Amino acid sequence: MAIAPITGMLRKRFWLDVTTSLGLGISAGAAYWYGYELKARANQEAFYLKLEKQKLAAAQQ
């Protein structure tokens, strides 16, 4: 009992696979960017702003 060869599978579903991959990749990237990265950058900027204000206050005294 031989197993029939799998032919044309890539060709038949190629565009579905490509669009699904791109869609999931872009969605995951957007979720990371807006869900984590922007919040982390805002926290970092707030920290450095606070640090700079402390340095200026210390220099004025």
Structure description:
- With about 60 residues, this protein is mainly α.
- The chain has a domain at about 30-60.
- The protein has one helix spanning about 10-60.
- The longest helix is centred in the middle third of the chain and has 52 residues, at about 10-60.
- The chain is rod-shaped, with a radius of gyration of 26 Å.
- The termini are far apart.
- Tell me roughly what share of residues is in helical segments: over 70%
Low-confidence stretches: none
DSSP strand count: 0
Give average pLDDT, whole number: 89
Strand content of the residues, in percent? under 5%
Q: Distance between the terminal alpha carbons, to the nearest Å?
A: 90 Å
What's the SSE pattern?
A: H
Q: Radius of gyration, rounded?
A: 26 Å
Question: What is the 3D form?
Answer: rod-shaped
Number of helices: 1
Largest sheet features: none
Class of secondary structure makeup: mainly alpha
In short:
The protein is mainly alpha-helical and 61 residues long.
Topology:
Layout: H1 9-60
Keywords, please?
single chain, 61 residues, mainly alpha, 1 helix, 85% helix
